Automatic annotation (TrEMBL):
One Gene Ontology term of the molecular function aspect: 5'-deoxynucleotidase activity
A Pfam family hit: YfbR-like
Gene (UniProt): yfbR
Keywords of the record: Hydrolase
Domain HD/PDEase span(s) in chain numbering: 26-151
Higher taxonomy: Bacteria, Bacillati, Bacillota, Clostridia, Lachnospirales
Enzyme Commission code(s) on record: 3.1.3.89
Record InterPro entries: HD/PDEase_dom, YfbR/HDDC2
Xref: SUPFAM superfamilies: HD-domain/PDEase-like
Domain of life: Bacteria
Organism for this UniProt entry: Lachnospira hominis
Protein name: 5'-deoxynucleotidase
Amino acid sequence: MENNQFYAMLSRMKYVNRWGTMRNTSNENICEHSLNVAFIAHALGIINNEEFNGNIDAQRLAVLGMYHDVTEIITGDLPTPVKYYSPVIREAYADVERVAKDELLSGIPEKMRKYYDSVLLETEEENELWKYVKAADKLSALIKCLEEEQMGNSDFADAKLTIEEYLKNMNMKEVDFFMEKFLPAYSMTLDESVTRLEG
C-alpha cells in the first residue's frame, strides 16, 4: 500500500498547541500560527517591494510561512528557552527536525517531494527569504503577547519584551514599518476597527 499520508498529517497541525509552558487565555495551535506567519511574511515582502524598492517574491514568503512549523506535527512545539538553551540542544533539535521532515516527505509520491523539500525547513539557498519568515514568526508571537496582555494575562509580559528586543535587533526596515503602521491595530476592538473602516 502506498504511503500518501502527507496531507492528512498537515491537517493534524490544529492539534499541536503553542506556548505550552504559559498560561493562555486563548490557546493557539500551529495551524493558526502558520497562517498568521504566512500573512505577515507576505506583507513584509510587499512592504519591501513597494516601500523600499526591493524585489522579493512575496508569494514565496507566504508559502514558506505556511509550512515553517510543519515538522512540529511530529516533534511537538518545543519552548524557545529550551530550544535555544545551548548549542548542543539546538543542534540535537535540528537533527530531530530533519528526521521529522524526511518522515513527512515519505508520505507523498517521490515526484512530488521536490515541491515540499525546500519549504519544510530552512535552506541555505533561500536564506534571505527565511530571514523574513523568521521576522514574521516573531511578529506573530508578539501579536499573541499583545492579545494576552489585553486579556489581563501578565504571563506574557517578559516574552513580549524579549520579542520586541529581538525584532529591534533584526534591523529590518520592513519589520520597523510593519510595527509602526500595522501593529497598533491589533490592540483595537472590532468596533474600533469597523468604525475606522467606515470613517
